[in-house]
């Protein structure tokens, strides 16, 4: 898989802007570190981390047109905020353009912005790595979140979801219903522990 990763890295270097490419490498290496810590497949984490934002630099209107062309559902929230489409479009492109056949990787890319109830370990890792990678500006509670990422992955996921919802609501930004469902699911899961 290392040759595959090298080939995709070269391609992404030309398709992403410099800042997004640097972020992508940060997510890739953070995801691999988390995979090692939590005892799961490191190569899956590397590839999912590398491709998680492969559709991020596509302009909003183009994202909508591509989703329509490939019959990917677009919610009202996504239509109003096309940047949210980069996860589902990225998952599609990972399969079609980058020839990724591993459903676990595709699912991790698809759920990395909103999360979803019953996330796999790889999905949690990519969601969290995207939030905590070293190049990210310090967000509220970042030190605690980074600590939890390597010790209690569900509590970490819940904390990020909670902080994200507080931020989006305080800014009057639209909230994807899947983010709320994911938050509710992990809140109940942690309360039962």
Automatic annotation (TrEMBL):
<keyword id="KW-0479">Metal-binding</keyword>
<dbReference type="InterPro" id="IPR005249">
    <property type="entry name" value="YqeK"/>
</dbReference>
<keyword id="KW-0378">Hydrolase</keyword>
<dbReference type="InterPro" id="IPR003607">
    <property type="entry name" value="HD/PDEase_dom"/>
</dbReference>
<dbReference type="GO" id="GO:0008803">
    <property type="term" value="F:bis(5'-nucleosyl)-tetraphosphatase (symmetrical) activity"/>
</dbReference>
<keyword id="KW-0547">Nucleotide-binding</keyword>
<dbReference type="InterPro" id="IPR006675">
    <property type="entry name" value="HDIG_dom"/>
</dbReference>
<dbReference type="GO" id="GO:0046872">
    <property type="term" value="F:metal ion binding"/>
</dbReference>
<keyword id="KW-0408">Iron</keyword>
<protein>
    <recommendedName>
        <fullName>bis(5'-nucleosyl)-tetraphosphatase (symmetrical)</fullName>
        <ecNumber>3.6.1.41</ecNumber>
    </recommendedName>
</protein>
<dbReference type="GO" id="GO:0000166">
    <property type="term" value="F:nucleotide binding"/>
</dbReference>
<dbReference type="Pfam" id="PF01966">
    <property type="entry name" value="HD"/>
</dbReference>
<dbReference type="InterPro" id="IPR051094">
    <property type="entry name" value="Diverse_Catalytic_Enzymes"/>
</dbReference>
<feature type="domain" description="HD">
    <location>
        <begin position="20"/>
        <end position="135"/>
    </location>
</feature>
<dbReference type="InterPro" id="IPR006674">
    <property type="entry name" value="HD_domain"/>
</dbReference>
